[in-house]
Design goal:
- The protein is of the alpha/beta class.
- The protein folds into 2 domains: 237 residues, Aspartate Aminotransferase, domain 2 (3-Layer(aba) Sandwich), CATH 3.40.640; 122 residues, Aspartate Aminotransferase, domain 1.
- It has 13 helices and 13 strands.
- An 8-stranded mixed sheet has the order 1-9-8-5-4-2-3-12, with helices on both faces.
- Strand 4, helix 5 and strand 5 form a beta-alpha-beta unit.
- The longest helix has 19 residues.
- It is globular.
Length: 378
């Protein structure tokens, strides 16, 4: 009997255990402790940014970004429909309207050529998602945003250790959001980070993150007492989670290298399926991805359903991904679709993700099963 293969599993080592134990015995479990500071130092150094703040989730980072964009009722924000609900929720919670635009068939990122037509006098920002750690076409997007005076928020939940023309994902727009959820490459169970490009909003972000108070300034001795000065919430993670995250960050290159080997093996072994009309991931030459997802695009929804069922019978977890937000009850209530989103609907019905995590030792079982389904193995 073969061992069941999950879709994902965390890559943990003795370093994580050591740091967590150190945090447990330090007497400092709340946010902004020594491990949080060390995570900030690592992120700032590796993202070439001086304004990174840990949050308790990527959702929190996106909500902070929406506050920093000063979104208000009646405003509109353009984004892809093919994304996680947190991207749209951050906007809707401010009373603004998510405006959903179609995606490109190659990267499944927002189609940069369709953004301008969706801009109205109410548009205030672009929320750009980097799907699977592959960058959206940022040169075009940033140029358009500058011309139209729009804020750019990068939802780089899947983007740590990936870049666009050498620039880390999440650092090119006004704000960026990272995720360290257990399904990501680098994890802390739950967790995220907000990246802020400029000094003034970075100072405000610190206040928003501390329930709208200037508490951090107080602890630095910049004010003699702290008080409520802005809208905010409790967006900090505990230092215990930061301890786990720091170990992961320090092992990030090692983890990414293993994932790349697995991703490349999938691509090489399954490439013959392209002759049968099966789509494999596309990585534009200007993008350095992080091997976050390896997906297949089947020929139809029926074929995908049968493939997932076939793999499940063999103990292999291979899920599909997002249900397009513009087709969801929440998307219809709080947002609106712009134009034809046929690519989003079609691709979302045909995409399936294969298991990919650093401790995957029986990848050959997945490859053999997929090839068998398509008649390329006995």
């Amino acid at each position: 009997m073969t061992t069941p293969i999950p879709f994902h599993a965390p890559t943990l080592s003795d370093l994580e255990k050591s740091y967590v134990l150190e945090a447990l015995t330090s007497g400092k479990l709340a946010g902004d402790g020594p491990f949080t500071k060390r995570c900030h130092e690592w992120l700032n150094a590796n993202l070439k940014s001086s304004h990174t703040l840990l949050t308790h989730s990527c959702t929190a980072a996106l909500e902070m970004a929406a506050l920093l964009c000063d979104l208000k009722p009646g405003d509109e924000v353009i984004m892809p429909s093919y994304t996680f609900v947190s991207t749209a929720n951050a906007v809707a919670l401010r009373g603004a309207t998510p405006v959903f635009v179609d995606i490109r068939p190659d990267t499944l990122n927002i189609d940069e050529k369709k953004i301008e037509a969706a801009i109205t006098s109410k548009t205030r920002a672009l929320f750009i998602v980097h799907y699977a750690g592959v960058a959206a076409e940022m040169d075009t997007i940033l140029a358009l945003a500058k011309e139209r005076r729009l804020k750019v928020v990068e939802d780089a939940a899947q983007g740590l250790m990936a870049s666009y023309k050498g620039r880390p994902l999440g650092t090119m727009g006004d704000f960026g959001a990272l995720s360290f959820h257990e399904t990501k490459n680098i994890v802390s169970g739950e967790g995220g980070a907000l990246i802020t490009r400029d000094e003034a909003p970075a100072a405000r972000a610190e206040i928003i993150r501390e329930k709208g108070t200037n508490r951090s300034q107080f602890f630095r001795g910049q004010v003699d007492k702290y008080t409520w000065v802005d809208l905010g919430s409790s967006f900090l993670p505990s230092d215990l989670l930061a301890a786990l995250l720091l170990a992961q960050l320090e092992r990030a290159k090692e983890i990414t290298k293993v994932r790349f080997t697995l991703w490349s093996t999938y691509h090489q072994e399954l490439k013959p399926l392209e002759s049968q009309g099966i789509g494999l991931p596309t990585i534009p030459k200007e993008c350095e991805h992080n091997a976050h997802i390896f997906s297949l695009i089947t020929k139809s929804l029926d074929e995908r359903t049968k493939l997932i069922s076939f793999l499940k019978e063999l103990g292999i977890a291979a899920p599909f991904h997002y249900v397009p937000l513009h087709t969801s009850p929440g998307g219809k209530k709080f947002g609106r679709a712009h134009g034809d989103l046929s690519q989003t609907v079609d691709l979302s019905e045909r995409l399936v993700r294969l298991p990919l995590f650093s401790t995957l030792t029986n990848q050959n079982q997945v490859v053999e099963a997929v090839l068998k389904f398509y008649g390329r193995r006995g």
